[in-house]
Automatic annotation (TrEMBL), chain A:
Membrane topology label: Multi-pass membrane protein
Official protein name in the record: Branched-chain amino acid ABC transporter permease
Similarity field: Belongs to the binding-protein-dependent transport system permease family. LivHM subfamily.
Keywords for this protein: Amino-acid transport, Cell membrane, Membrane, Transmembrane, Transmembrane helix, Transport
Provenance organism: Chelativorans salis
Transmembrane segments: 7-34, 40-57, 64-82, 102-121, 142-164, 197-218, 230-255, 267-291
UniProtKB/TrEMBL annotation, chain B:
Major location (coarse): membrane
Protein name (database record): Branched-chain amino acid ABC transporter permease
Highest taxon above the source species: Bacteria
Keyword Cell membrane listed: yes
Keywords attached to this entry: Cell membrane, Membrane, Transmembrane, Transmembrane helix
Membrane-crossing segments per the record: 31-49, 56-76, 82-103, 110-127, 156-175, 206-226, 232-251, 258-277, 283-304
InterPro entries hit by this protein: ABC_transp_permease, LivM-like
Membrane topology: Multi-pass membrane protein
Automatic annotation (TrEMBL), chain C:
Transcription regulation is among the record's keywords: no
Residue stretches making up the ABC transporter domain: 6-238
Entry annotated with the keyword Thylakoid: no
InterPro entries for this protein: AAA+_ATPase (IPR003593), ABC_AA/LPS_Transport (IPR051120), ABC_transporter-like_ATP-bd (IPR003439), BCA_ABC_TP_C (IPR032823), P-loop_NTPase (IPR027417)
Keyword set, alphabetical order: ATP-binding, Nucleotide-binding, Transport
Taxonomic source organism: Chelativorans salis
Gene3D superfamilies named in the record: P-loop containing nucleotide triphosphate hydrolases
Pfam family, one: BCA_ABC_TP_C
Name listed for the protein in its UniProt record: ABC transporter ATP-binding protein
CDD domains linked: ABC_Mj1267_LivG_branched (cd03219)
GO molecular function: ATP binding
Lineage summary: Bacteria, Pseudomonadati, Pseudomonadota, Alphaproteobacteria, Hyphomicrobiales
Domain of life: Bacteria
């Protein structure tokens, strides 16, 4: 019976954990999954977003509200970011993965150190009323600090899915990755579309940052542990499917949670990568991706 | 310079290194020089795959750390001498390289890069959970006293690293001049075109993975002897992975000189800088330099130079 | 006709919902000069990719010299003597022009002696001789096309497949390339030419195949193809419309 309780708890925690991971991965599902830009700086941007949320929280603002507020300036930062990337590479004939990966790697370091310089290496957290309390359903207990951010995910996933598959701009984003020429023939500027998509991805990062910092305190390097995990999710999902991203994230969340409960928490970081390697070896198109 | 002559010069340098302890009394120089040479090896090893073939490896520290732990394990379990620790570490690195490459290279270069990020964390997790290797807190490594000639352990490992560096550079140089190097350059430029010319791209990439991984792991093997202590945080340090990438990019990735120049420059600056500034700024500086080079001088310092020089023909290259 | 050198049977290839090719079948005899024409997107390049091993066909088999090569990797086919040029040039950047030719010589089918002289000879024949020592990335788009062809020649192929090797060349240059290819064919090499430049294919080929939406819609002598109403409709109609 204890084992069953433990398992139930682990699965519940895993689902909650997974939907928070999904939030972290959504931006990457756009940049890497759809646009094929290997933005390894995404988790660092999430952490920068978390710090931005902490700043507004000082003034008593709710973290989620703060995240929403910040998402607008972050959208514009994303535009600038893409512009820098595009001018550095795409104009040059682009497509050199080594160089663009290296660029993003460098950028993530600069973000991290900028945070260290500005705030030091101490942990930062937000103040919310419900920290420390849990929702109890029978033997299952889920802390609100996990539950609340996890509940943002379905909303964001739904809205994003709606945007990408029902609006003209959203469809253009998908189309531009597929065939740039066809889009420009249709009278849409492909660079502008990609820049816009990158802006949305960056705006999503700050919302993910808000969710992450509710779950627990962050330090400037907190993004690193997520790099492999978010890529694992995007690849497992099948590059750029939005509902698939949520499902893949939950699979990874549950797997990690089970390992934490039944093996040892110290094994958990390896789980996502084991799944990533297995996916790449066995089903490189991902679980929900079509053959490309 | 032909390859035999090149190897001869390298060998002479190694022999000259034997006499350094007599000329330089202060062991600090060997202590710092060891790190610089270690980066020459890492950067050279990284460049075999990253430079010649164009496949980014973010996980140099996985290979370095695996080499260090393999060496420590071989010593603890069997008491093997340093030379066998190095060979064992190289074998482990080659295996890791081939395994990672085999799983990911068939698909796309980006996945390989991401898998290498993953590899660091997987190995670190593994070590964390292995009691025998000291877990998270690390393990002491008391190496037997060095040959009396060297006057001290530091001088000895410095020389050992000099030997490894000489071997690594000669290997890189040989690859570059041989048909393998030409095939790797073809892969870097265009894999479909390389295939259409009869280049077995997958096999060649796996070979490059193996050699690159082996060299980087060999760079880690003397590390436990050097510090007498081994822990996961320093063995799998991010700075190693970052430097492995930055040094060839700064020097230039097209030939053996680039990583050597990049490593000598950057590692020396870092050795001087760590005395004066914090390690955070160290990382920041490398990050900024990395961005600047990728954006402004993607061919590195040597690329800037050869933009003025006239192109020359490389003639050598035996048959497969 | 004796046993064909290359034989394609019921080969088809789809990308997702798009059926790009087939099923098609065709035989190529040793020493033949075959032209393949067809409007944009009709599956010509896809067919070549299936033959040379860059795509694995969904159905069908490909055999070469009586051997089933359907599942052979591309580089093995290249070593067997199947050589191609790419429609969009894929130069080996970071190498000089002449070193580009040394790659197929290093890895290719025959162990050619006097590599360098051969390579220089080939460069002369396509008109790239004075670019010999320039880095490939400095070539113009036109020169890249010539390099593409030169590199395919350097592999000393048994079958040369040229995918739009002459697009953008001047009339004089087309004549030069055609005479190189005639020469090559006289030396016993089978040539498959994919081309939009009608007068060039028609002049060169002994037999022409016309593809349309992945199907062979016409096949025969250049005269027959030129006058075929089906071909006129899908091909020349579209050409004049553009
Ligand atoms: N890698 C690919 N992925 C998806 N679709 C592809 C791919 N390659 C070709 N296609 C599609 O297959 C069809 C046939 O293309 P193909 O390149 O074979 O035509 P083609 O006859 O060579 O045309 P062109 O004269 O323009 O070169 C086209 O609809 C094209 O969009
Ligand atoms: Mg084509």
């Amino acid at each position: 019976m204890i084992v069953l309780d433990l398992a139930l708890n682990a699965v519940a925690t895993g689902i909650v954990l997974g939907s928070i991971y999904a939030l972290l991965a959504l931006g990457l599902a756009i940049t890497f999954g759809i646009l094929h830009i290997p933005n390894v700086a995404h988790p660092a941007i999430v952490i920068a977003g978390a710090y931005a949320v902490v700043v507004l929280n000082r003034f008593g603002l709710d973290p989620i509200l703060a995240g929403l507020l910040w998402s607008i300036p972050f959208y514009f930062i994303g535009l600038a970011f893409y512009e820098f990337y595009a001018r550095s590479f795409e104009s040059r004939g682009g497509g050199n993965t080594l160089q663009s990966l290296t660029l993003f790697f460098g950028i993530s370091l600069v973000i991290e150190i900028a945070l260290v310089v500005a705030y030091g290496t101490d942990l930062r957290s937000v103040r919310v009323g419900y920290v420390g309390e849990s929702l109890r359903l029978g033997t299952v207990a889920i802390p609100y600090r996990f539950l609340v951010p996890a509940l943002i995910t379905p909303v964001v996933v739904f809205l994003l899915w709606l945007y990408l598959s029902k609006t003209n701009t959203g469809l253009a984003i998908r189309a531009v990755a597929h065939d740039e020429r066809a889009v420009s023939v249709a009278g849409v500027n492909p660079t502008a579309i990609k820049r816009h998509a990158f802006g949305i991805a960056t705006a999503l990062a700050v919302i993910a940052g808000a969710a992450l910092v509710i779950t627990g305190p962050v330090d400037p390097f907190a993004g690193r542990i997520h790099i492999g995990r978010v890529f694992a999710i995007v690849v497992l999902a099948g590059m750029g499917t939005i509902p698939g991203t949520l499902a893949a994230a939950i699979i990874i969340g549950v797997a990690e949670s089970l390992v934490m409960s039944f093996a040892s928490p110290s094994w958990a970081p390896g789980v996502a990568f084991a799944i990533l390697l297995a996916t790449l070896a066995l089903r490189p198109t991902g679980l929900f991706g079509g053959v490309r | 310079m032909t390859l035999p002559r090149f190897a001869l010069v390298a060998a002479l340098l190694v022999v000259a290194g034997l006499f350094l302890p007599m000329v330089i009394p202060n062991p600090y120089y060997f202590y710092a020089g060891y790190v610089v040479l270690q980066y020459v090896v890492i950067a050279t090893g990284w460049n075999i795959l990253g430079g010649y073939a164009g496949y980014t490896n973010f996980g140099a520290s996985a290979f370095f750390g695996a080499g260090a732990y393999a060496a420590a394990f071989l010593f603890k379990a069997f008491g093997l001498p340093l030379i066998f620790q190095i060979l064992g570490a190289a074998a482990v690195g080659m295996f890791l390289g081939v395994a990672t490459g085999y799983l990911t290279l068939r698909i796309q270069g980006v996945y390989f890069a991401i898998a290498t990020v993953a590899l660091v964390i997987v190995l670190e997790t593994l070590v964390h959970n292995t009691e025998y290797l000291g877990g998270a807190s690390g393990m002491t490594h008391i190496a037997p006293p060095p040959p009396a000639w060297f006057g001290g352990q530091t001088q000895f490992v410095f020389w050992v690293m000099l030997v490894i560096a000489a071997c690594a550079v000669v290997l890189a140089r040989w690859l570059e001049l041989s048909w393998i190097g030409r095939g790797l350059r073809a892969i870097r430029a265009s894999e479909p075109a390389a295939e259409s010319c009869g280049v077995p791209t997958l096999r060649l990439k796996l070979l490059a993975c193996a050699l690159s991984g082996g060299v980087m792991a060999a760079a880690g093997a003397p590390y436990p002897t050097y510090t007498s202590y081994l822990d996961p945080v320093s063995a799998f340090s991010l700075l190693i992975g970052l430097n492995a990438l930055a040094m060839p990019l700064i020097g230039g990735t097209r030939n053996w000189k680039g990583p050597v120049i990049g490593a000598l420059l950057l590692a020396s600056v870092q050795q001087i800088a760590t005395v004066t500034i914090s390690s955070e700024f160290n990382i920041l500086a490398v990050g900024v330099v990395l961005i600047a080079f990728v954006v402004l001088a993607p061919e590195g310092l040597l690329g800037l130079k050869s933009a003025w020089a006239r192109p020359k023909l490389r003639l050598s290259g035996a048959k497969p | 006709m004796s046993e064909p050198l290359l034989s394609v049977r019921d080969v088809s290839k789809s990308f997702g919902a798009i059926k790009a090719l087939g099923p098609v079948g065709l035989d190529v005899a040793e020493g033949e000069r075959l032209g393949i024409i067809g409007p944009n997107g009709s599956g010509k390049t896809t067919l070549i990719n299936c033959i040379t091993g860059f795509f694995r066909p969904d159905t069908g088999t490909i055999s070469y010299k009586g051997q089933d090569i359907t599942r052979l990797p591309a580089y093995r086919r290249a070593r067997l003597g199947l050589s191609r040029s790419f429609q969009i040039p894929h130069p080996f950047t970071g190498m000089t022009v002449i070193e580009n030719l040394l790659v197929p010589m290093d890895y290719g089918a025959t162990s050619a002696r006097k590599e360098l002289e051969n390579a220089e000879e080939i460069l002369r024949s396509v008109g790239l001789a004075e670019r010999r020592d320039h880095p490939a990335e400095q070539l113009s788009q036109l020169e890249l096309r010539k390099l593409e062809l030169a590199r395919a020649l350097a592999a000393r192929p048994a079958i040369l497949i040229a995918d739009e090797a002459m697009a953008g060349l001047s009339e004089a240059e087309i004549d030069d390339i055609l005479s190189v290819l005639f020469e090559l064919n006289r030396a016993g090499v089978t040539v498959i030419m994919i081309e939009h430049i009608m007068h060039a294919v028609m002049r060169y080929s002994e037999r022409v195949i016309c593809l349309e939406t992945g199907q062979v819609i016409a096949e025969g002598s250049p005269e027959k193809i030129t006058s075929s109403p089906v071909v006129q409709k899908v091909y020349f109609g579209e050409q004049t419309a553009r």
